[in-house]
């Protein structure tokens, strides 16, 4: 078990008189009463106590005991080899403050890493195994690591994992794509390129943080806006890059998709498609959706908003994107049309792309927008002395709802049609949402802009874990990789505050808080918090699987049958809110939002700040859940009886 008890500090250790072994740790509250006394105490069952966070070797008896094991220096600290963190005893390693040198957390962490490698060397050598000097610790392997993430997208295209880099800044050069493949990305789409006669040069600044999340700076941006155009590099550069990358990265481990763009001109599209196919691209993506700059030249958005043009261009490219393989067979490359969300109905465009022979679509490109205006009325980004701007492409989490809608709508209208989703994926959990919506691959840009290529490690292992969880019946109640919320009655470690033996409801502030702490202190003194391990969590070895682990293809479009028209929703099954008093922090936010935005269905005690749901008035809108700062504090439960709307003035028959 691993839990955090805030506002408590250790005060004493309880030992077993018979064995002298530790059996419990006493703690006292760091918060005080009006008299200056500790506001309460707690007792936790344990078998060991680890001292950390700035602990120093100062206790005399501890030093005397340590002296019998390792050599100490004149200051009373262990003599440590800084190259291994080893001591005079080959089985004892020391780091951090105990070594008498490290004073910073980052230094202590470095000591720990070096000591871990040295321990690994020591243990392996005990068995006569040779270990290299370079620290390359083996990864921790579980059944989750064996989960297959490959996905069949369409005939002729299989991805080793569903994660790829979108045609965007992360694929600006072939060298960058090479590093991405080495990091573990399943596929990459080249930065869009055109014929040399359509070459572009970018302006600056052109990629800026979004302001949709307020004054949030640094990584973790919820959105970006860019006014960047397609690649500044030539057609020859990209075709040579494709040849070099495909020579070094096999399609079974890394898929490379060429992104091309031209105006409504069959010759241009044909030349670009034939060149990409001859260079060895695994597939071709047709950028008919860039929302800025290129549309003004009759390219990008100008083509993608016209259904007839989309169908024609897909037909031209499908006819041209062919090559002869090593067996002398003519192979047709999969073709994907990249669609714009800046249109009335994206499904109509997807249907026309399919009619033109496209094997799939990419949905969606960035959403056209104006991100920010400052106090002087100037936009950001602003270019040149005149501080001019243009409408750019919004990307990132801010457009995820639009991307999920587009993907699910296309999947519902065209079952089985291949979709590569893009627009706001920043975790394995979100990737699974896109797969459930009907996508077979996910293209990512903004999340990489927030960090770097290494996010792929979390995305891959995260999706493997999510698929693995589906095969374990004992984990069915989990929300993704999060344990289900339990009450403190069932598991005191969820919120280590035992239910009080009183009918009085006590909030967590003022004199009520002190009374509550006193009652809890009395209970904890009687019965320490248990450390009994759960029957299913943390068991080694892990329980056997209840069924086979689903493949990525198995979960594609899983959510689509449940997405439809408003009038398909149940008009009979209603819910109302229920507040958990154990988790409520008495902030009043639910009352405020319901009172001024909803149905005045929450009462609020002006003295105790305890909210109560007025069941007859609650309409189940769920706004209170949306603004509550405590996870699972408010849940929606079935209404007892039918929902009868308040009409204001009775309807006349």
Enumerate the strands of the largest sheet in spatial order, edge to edge or round the barrel: 6-7-10-11-14-15-18-19
Q: Which range best describes the helical content: under 10%, 10-25%, 25-40%, 40-55%, 55-70% or over 70%? A: 25-40%
Beta strands, count:
23
Rg value: 31 Å
The separation of the N and C termini measures 64 Å
- Stretches where pLDDT is under 50 for at least 5 consecutive residues are 492-498, 532-537
* Count of separate DSSP helical elements: 16
Oligomeric state of the chains present here? single chain
Structural class: alpha/beta
Mean pLDDT: 90
* Global shape: globular
Question: Strands, helices and their partners?
Answer:
Elements: E1 8-15, E2 22-29, E3 41-45, H1 60-67, H2 105-126, E4 151-154, E5 157-159, E6 163-165, H3 174-183, E7 187-189, E8 207-209, E9 224-226, H4 235-248, E10 255-260, H5 266-279, E11 283-287, H6 301-304, H7 307-320, E12 322-324, E13 330-332, E14 335-338, H8 346-355, E15 360-363, E16 367-369, E17 392-395, H9 400-413, E18 418-422, H10 428-437, E19 441-444, H11 446-450, H12 455-469, H13 510-526, H14 552-555, E20 575-579, H15 589-597, E21 602-604, E22 611-613, H16 623-627, E23 634-638
Parallel strand pairs: 6-7, 6-19, 7-10, 10-11, 11-14, 14-15, 15-18, 18-19
Antiparallel strand pairs: 1-2, 2-3, 4-5, 8-9, 9-17, 12-13, 16-17, 20-23, 21-22
Helix pairs in contact: 4-5, 5-7, 7-8, 8-9, 9-10, 10-12
